[in-house]
Amino acid sequence: MTNKSLLRSSLVNNRWYETMLVGNSAFIPVTYELIETIPITSNTSSITFANLASFSTTYRHLQIRGTGRSNRGDDNSAVGIRFNGDTGSNYSFHNIQTLSGNWDTANSGSHTSITLGYTLAAATTASGHYGGFIIDILEPYNSNKFKTVKAFSGQPSGRNFICVASGNWRNTNSVTSVTLIDAAGTNFVSGSSFSLYGIRR
Amino acid sequence: MSYVALANITLTGNDNQILFSSIPNTYRHLALVMQTRAAGGGLTYPSVRFNNDSGTNYPQVTMGANSAQVYNTTYNFNRIGYGGNSTTSHGHAMTLDIFDYAQTDKQKVFLQKENYYGNAIGYFTGRWLNTAAITSIAIFFEDGSNMASGSTFELFGIAS
Description:
The structure holds two protein chains of two kinds. Chain A is mainly beta. Chain A has strands at about 1-5, 30-40, 45-50, 60-70, 75-85, 90-100, 100-110, 115-120, 130-140, 145-155, 160-170, 180, 195-200. Chain A has an eight-stranded antiparallel β-sheet with strand order 2-13-4-9-10-11-6-7, with no helix packed on it. Chain A has a four-stranded antiparallel β-sheet with strand order 3-12-5-8, with no helix packed on it. Chain A is globular and about 45 Å long. Chain B is mainly beta. Chain B is about 0% helix and about 50% strand. Chain B has strands at about 5-10, 15-20, 30-35, 45-50, 60-65, 70-75, 90-100, 110-115, 120-130, 135-140, 150-160. The radius of gyration of chain B is 15 Å and the shape is globular. Strand 1 of chain A pairs parallel with strand 2 (about 15-20) of chain B.
């Protein structure tokens, strides 16, 4: 058995670089950086990562990772994504997903958010059950393109859900804020957490 | 730096288990990236366990496709890993994202993507039925056989 104890690893809490003197190894810059984490400590219908315009020259893409649970009276709820406070029907999405071993799809060409199906565990599941998700926001600061999102999420409780999704915001404006909502109109509950990361240019 | 390499292993000989131990609780999430190939024998399934838990505590759901069909199923195993297989000539690649691994208020949810022998791709999600912080990750083949020299395993911590 190969045992790698991180107690002895020189890479724990790694941030290292070698001298920039000629003949030495290159400095490897940071490329994936935490911008902000929003933990949920009480019922919250939405969260917003704001003031994102200041990162327009730093990051090419954004990513959200997190875990979530809803107080919706069901075994699941969905996460909706909005940009720049736009609550109009300016979003499209398409999901491939399964529940209880059955195939399912969802899509809309005109919706009030990019809706990621089956992302959150909800009230009828046992406490301690949360969904997990990774949401990629591609080129949010490119003013020549609509904004594209792709996501992978799942919550293996209740009817057991897994979802691969994509969508767009039909607006070429540079992103200044990202809002996540409980798409059923209910609330994220305590223990949910959302972290925003930037991927450098 | 928010996506930190905690440890990496490249096998220089065949081995039947990889163990990342004493994982610090200072990150929010973990990401495991691995590529394996079987050292001998027929098809075998790369598998993962947390904190040496070999109980039937890993309910999972999957959807995917291979050269013959699309599939989806739910199951509860004593390990993470289903369908993805490795042979001596065909490797298996997997990324495993583990959320809130050190938080003790929730069972541990994970997302997994893999591709493997038979022109196959799979998406998985699952839970470890335990609220304890994850302090070790074991990787092995389900039938106990050896992973081949050259197989690689990388563990990353993602900041909160």
